[in-house]
Amino acid sequence: MLNRPDRRNALSHSMIDTLVGVLVSAASDDGLRAVHVSGAASDFCAGVDWVGTNSGGQRPRTGDLVRRIPHTAHRVIELVHTLHLPVVCTVRGWAAGMGCNLALAADFTVAASDAVFWEPFLDRGFTPDSGSTWLLPRLVGMARAKNILLLGEKVDGATAAQWGLIHRSVDDADLDSTVTALLDRLASGPTVAIGLAKQAVHYSQYATLSQAMTQELFNLELSCRADDFKEGLAAFRERRNPDFTGR
Q1: What is the DSSP string of the chain?
Q2: How many CA atoms lie within 13 A of 192 on its CB side?
Q3: pLDDT tier at 73, thresholds 50, 70, 90
Q4: Given Cys at both, which of 2, 128, 137, 242 links 145, Cβ 3.0 to 4.6 Å?
Q5: Closest of 114, 88, 97 to residue 45, by C-alpha
Q6: Which InterPro entries match (predicted)?
Q7: Cα 81 to Cα 132: distance, rounded to the nearest angstrom
Q8: Is the pTM of this model over 0.85?
């Protein structure tokens, strides 16, 4: 949980470092079946706290952003995108800047219908980052991506779901139960196969058909060696629901 409600859960340096550490640990934790990211109180995340992180009065040295951000904010997006676990975001209120891109990078984002997705970079006088120029065109196409990035168009949760920007939009009263049901479903699934399927889907976005099918074969070889593959076949033969253990 992003827990800084007095700043709409805007991310400080220490919060980003902690989030990177949590995601790195999750990548190697065989006991985990899914990752859930949410925001405390009434907002998801208002992005990086640029005011708080630049209030020291001393101008950063030249190249500071290029040197530091690949290992902090950008690392968060990369980890969410490549983690071999399903990542689910619950979005209420504002998802702005990096908060928006964190939600877009997740495998499944469920938002309240009145949530607001916003890329305010150009409104603040600087260029987009944290994966927005890569994620948005792939999710909603170039025209809508330019509206969101260049014109600063805000998108509510219902529209985001309609456009395919996120997984689903529901009334706020139904949000928690909807996400819980989704997490339960993912956490009871064949975790190894889910992770490999996620990797293959992402790989295919910049591969040829032949390359994508070759990658599928390697992933198929691996998933067929998992215990859950044997359980899936047994459940099919016995006409029952499988009891996957994630191994």
Answers
A1: -B--GGGTTPBPHHHHHHHHHHHHHHHT-TT---EEE-BSTT-SB--B-HHHHT-SSSPPPTTHHHHHGGGTHHHHHHHHHH-SS-EEEEE-SEEETHHHHHHHHSSEEEEETT-EEE--TGGGTS---TTHHHHHHHHH-HHHHHHHHHS---EEHHHHHHHTSSSEEE-HHHHHHHHHHHHHHHHTS-HHHHHHHHHHHHHHTTS-HHHHHHHHHHHHHHHTTSHHHHHHHHHHHTTS-------
A2: 19
A3: very high
A4: 137
A5: 97
A6: ClpP/crotonase-like_dom_sf, Enoyl-CoA_hydra/iso, Enoyl-CoA_hydra_C
A7: 13
A8: yes
* Side chain identity at residue 226, one-letter code: A
Q: How far is CA 53 from the centre of its chain?
A: 23
Contact assessment for residue 88 and residue 107, using Cβ atoms and an 8 Å cutoff: yes
pLDDT per position as a tens digit, 5-40: 999 999 999 999 999 999 999 999 999 999 999 999
Q: Hey, what are 223's tokens? A: 């998933």
* Cβ pair 78, 94 in contact under 8 A: no
Do the two domains 5-186 and 190-238 of this chain adopt the same fold?
no
How far from the centroid of its chain's Cα atoms is residue 246's Cα?
A: 21
In terms of CATH architecture, what is 190-238?
A: Orthogonal Bundle (1.10)
14 HSE (CA, 13 A, CB side): 3
Question: Which tokens is 168 given?
Answer: 């689903």
Q: Mention the CATH class of domain 5-186.
A: alpha beta
Tally of CB atoms within 10 A around 199: 17
